[in-house]
Amino acid sequence: DIVLTQSPVLAVSLGQRATISCRASQSVSISSINLMHWYQQKPGQQPKLLIYRASNLASGIPARFSGSGSGTDFTLTIDPVQADDIAAYYCQQSRESPTFGSGTKLEIK
Amino acid sequence: EVQLVETGGGLVQPGRSLKLSCVASGFTFNNYWMSWTRQAPGKGLEWVASITNSGGSTYYPDSVKGRFTISRDNAQNTLYLQMNSLRSEDTATYYCTRAITTFYYFDYWGQGVMVTVSS
Predict the structure, then answer these.
(1) A-contacting residues of B 73-112, CB under 8 Å?
(2) What percent of chain A has pLDDT over 90?
(3) Is B23 exposed, middle or buried (CB count within 10 Å of its CB: 0-12, 13-18, 19+)?
(4) What is the pLDDT, as a whole number, of residue B102?
């Protein structure tokens, strides 16, 4: 299985940039297609798709969210961070059978 | 509007069985693969099962293979998860998800249903 590693917690100030990383145990890219996706889960809610194929914004997601990366290293950026962004963020790969990272909890400083 | 509504959760003893259902609406159900993903209390997400749009093929991780069976009724827009030989480690919230098969991500999630395996 491909293991995805995320830092457990990230604390940022409101209005600043948050950079959430996800590292895969092996490449999740095929040619130019990056098979990494990001989800947001607010407390008590189901996950919601934010970014697919590393850098494509899902429908209805604000432009302050963006994604980048290739191979084994991927980043979700939130700029600027708003109070409503307090949540856990999960990466998921689909290069092989789907696996998720352990999640990064975004906290406000 | 896409909606996925799960039912069938509850408390079950170890070794027993439980069947979850998910009723889908707001999209053409038989055009999409569907999946189940679970989340143990306070933990991360784990993919549990997927089924092709026709129901002809199914996929599972090793953790549930041979114990869980995913199925669907396209006439009733309903997805199922039959869970047998349940273990305490199967305790989780189970989410019904719509899968975008080309790149295998999950674009819609139900609200989830809790399954507790305990004596």
Answers:
(1) 95, 100, 103-112
(2) 98
(3) middle
(4) 80
